[in-house]
Design a protein that fits this description.
The complex is a heterodimer of chains A (150) and B (171). With 150 residues, chain A is α+β, with helices and mostly antiparallel strands. Chain A contains 5 helices and 8 strands; from the N terminus they run H-H-H-E-E-E-E-E-E-H-H-E-E. Chain A starts with a helix and ends in a 6-residue tail after the last strand. Chain B has 171 residues and is mostly helical. Classes of the chains: A alpha+beta (150), B mainly alpha (171). At the A-B interface, helix 1, strand 5, strand 6, helix 4 and helix 5 of A face helix 1, helix 2, helix 3 and helix 4 of B.
Chain lengths: 150, 171
Amino acid sequence: MVDPMAFSRILIGLALLVLLGAWANYSCPYPDLAEILANPKKFAGQRVAIFIEARIVEQTEDGFILMQRGKRLRVHCEVKEAPVGEYVAVAGIFDPPDHLRADGLRLARDRRWKMSISVVPLLLLIILLPLALRFDHQTRTFTLRTSTYA
Amino acid sequence: MPDLLTHTAAAYLAARRWFPRAGAILFILGTMLPDMLSRPFHILFPALHWWVMPLHTPAGMAIVCWIITGFFRTGERGGVFIALSGGVLLHFFLDLPQKHLVAGYFWLFPFSWTTYEWGWWWSEESVQIVPLMILLVAFVEILIYFHKRTARKQKAFPNGQDRTTNKNKYV
């Protein structure tokens, strides 16, 4: 038998998380590239930042072109080497229709490596959790294993 | 964030004394939770970035830990919540020294978008200390192994007489 209190706790918790997510999405002070390109007049001459999953797709003479969620932006900067495919974060002044004069830039060179090695602990967790927990079919809850050797 | 391996190694070292008891494993799980629940979504679906961002904030993680405790027996919920939240706090503490070009971590969300970081290193640079963390874990394990072996010997031969020494004496 499922504890109705536990069930409502899970539902209320999930609802709160959805509300937090909706609030974050609604009120976040960082417009993404699609929003900037859709309102070029609004952002003209303003300092903007593109940093969420943006990648370099092409190197140009005076910088590079980055892509974020299918939208492209030409970035003018003093970086000599802009490897195609690299994750990048840029901040600078927006020049309509699709240019950015970067005054801050960060190439996340180790990001792929970081993502790859982060999978290892998840695999360890698959081994560790059964050592710590047991599922009680009667109460349909997890219980902690109490033995010293778990 | 440092990479998940660095977070896990730090949690393991912090909870090593109690490992592999359930509390220690839940502490390690707590350390993984903020990245485990948020990163895959916004890497695979960047449009969801701000939707899942609260899962990497103290308020969001408090709710997540509270939800997880709902899957446990009533009497165990307090302990589970403490172990998970302890891990989450360690995660956030390890995230503090980083720097970002813009944004960063929103510790006071949903009340404020203020970010605060110590700005010592970039978030990807943690991968460079992964070998060091692995060596550190190995070093601690070796130390504990020798400490336990010495303790076992001392328990078996409290007067400091080794069995091999005794054997030689009478041969």
